[in-house]
Amino acid sequence: MSHTAGRTILASTIAKQYTEEVTQKVKELDFKPKLVGFLANDDPAAQMYANWTEKTCESLGFTYQLVKVAKNDLENAIVEANGNDGVNGIMVYFPVFGDQQDQYLQQAISPEKDVEGLNFLYYHNLYHNVRFLDAPINEQKSILPCTPLAMVKILEYLGIYNKHLPYGNRLYGKSILVVNRSEIVGRPLAALLANDGATVYSADIDNVQKFTRGDDLLMQRHKVEELNYEEFKPEVIAPQCDVVITGVPSEKYKFPTASVANGTVVINFASAKNFNEDIKERAGLYVPSIGKVTIAMLLRNLLRLIENKKIRQSK
Amino acid sequence: MSHTAGRTILASTIAKQYTEEVTQKVKELDFKPKLVGFLANDDPAAQMYANWTEKTCESLGFTYQLVKVAKNDLENAIVEANGNDGVNGIMVYFPVFGDQQDQYLQQAISPEKDVEGLNFLYYHNLYHNVRFLDAPINEQKSILPCTPLAMVKILEYLGIYNKHLPYGNRLYGKSILVVNRSEIVGRPLAALLANDGATVYSADIDNVQKFTRGDDLLMQRHKVEELNYEEFKPEVIAPQCDVVITGVPSEKYKFPTASVANGTVVINFASAKNFNEDIKERAGLYVPSIGKVTIAMLLRNLLRLIENKKIRQSK
Asked: Ranges for the Tetrahydrofolate dehydrogenase/cyclohydrolase NAD(P)-binding domain (chains A, B) (predicted)?
């Protein structure tokens, strides 16, 4: 018998329904979708992640091709893959240059093959709570970046999204702390959850912002307010939050367990362990990592890109 | 009488023909074009630059409106200006957040109003040596980022571009050192000059790359080769270069004058002085700053955006 009141939920458990859904949908296609991953760094972690993407792809019925390429040849390789009808999805293992050139490369992937949802178009739609690519017809759904999307699916699974509320407002009344405000995950995640109705405290290294659609969700999309750091820093705001989400990419960083109220839902999306083991004595539901859900979302995005293309071609 | 063999050329001298051209073209329009500048930081230097933009705009026949806005309201303000028919051009005084969110905001400006040429579309065209927006009709010229474009115009003025060579190859045979490889100026500048036929040595803090279209300019666009830093660092490569261009944003940095061969063309685009006064004893032509040409290019881009819009509307 467990000694704690709460439970640890593994990403594999949450991912299961999505990997099943994806596997089923692939079977219904008349071809095997192909994902190309570009590796242009020597990072063994990226190589491991690539191996793991390959394994997942192949096991679910996709074709995966890892292309190793020199940093300075990457853009050309992306442009070629953009124009190659045999390639359905493209991803790059970042960082490549580790500077702003990586943002340039991110935009070089055609939105039509951007399985990670990194294109400005998709981030813009996320921030502006625009859910379709073809308003007002609204047939082609916009793509969401994989990690924020995985977080939504995890919160749905855990029952934080309340199905009794109208679609689009299902986080109404929930307070969520997100520790990380990177442009890739933390900021879009805060916006996405706020757009779904939550009050989100988005913490960066030395400041905290509040993302909401206003007290009554009257706004169509979120607004951002700067908060006083001392009054709203993570350990001060955490006790009032229903959900605490961390994504600090450092093995040294540990979220202060003592500030987490008993029964809080706790999720870590960093590859580093942002919580000590004693978090299990506090957390209601604890999800220590989310990678397997993220990769399911990647393949789900790939299928959505294929679907969107089909809709465009049928016009 | 001057004690040096070379000459210092001021940006105002080079800008003159372009400010005249711009003033003439504005007169031919049946409306007064409007540029909106968004200021969302407290940097006095940005405020000064804004004042200076305003002065130049008004004196050449444009309307300029400075809009001060809170950082977190900037994106909405940009989106509104994108949709406002009374606004012809939009610029933002960066940095705003000083992190990757600035790259997001940069993309938020509609390409149709992006006077600074910061949109991915324009950078992509620059890197790929694509000069029109509407191939194969080729009526709408692509926009070039202001500072790299200003540099091209300066090099044309100084006679480094050779008019006897075919258009597109007019830097053939020229070796150019560019010290700065920022994503905003240094890297696109190196690519642009290489695409026009030069051999460009692009120096970053601890590495040097060579940008060329191959020995015989057989390539349609440049390639990038990594060089051994010790063999090709700025002070080693400078003596062989026809042109030395610097853009190091630090008052402490000084390019080593002794490494510049007599008669070299020397241009500094940083707001900091990258050369000591003794450079005048070495340089053939020395351009100590380029701001006035850059701002002329900004207004030239604004007129080009208006022209492109007219062409689209006439279809």
From this structure: 145-309
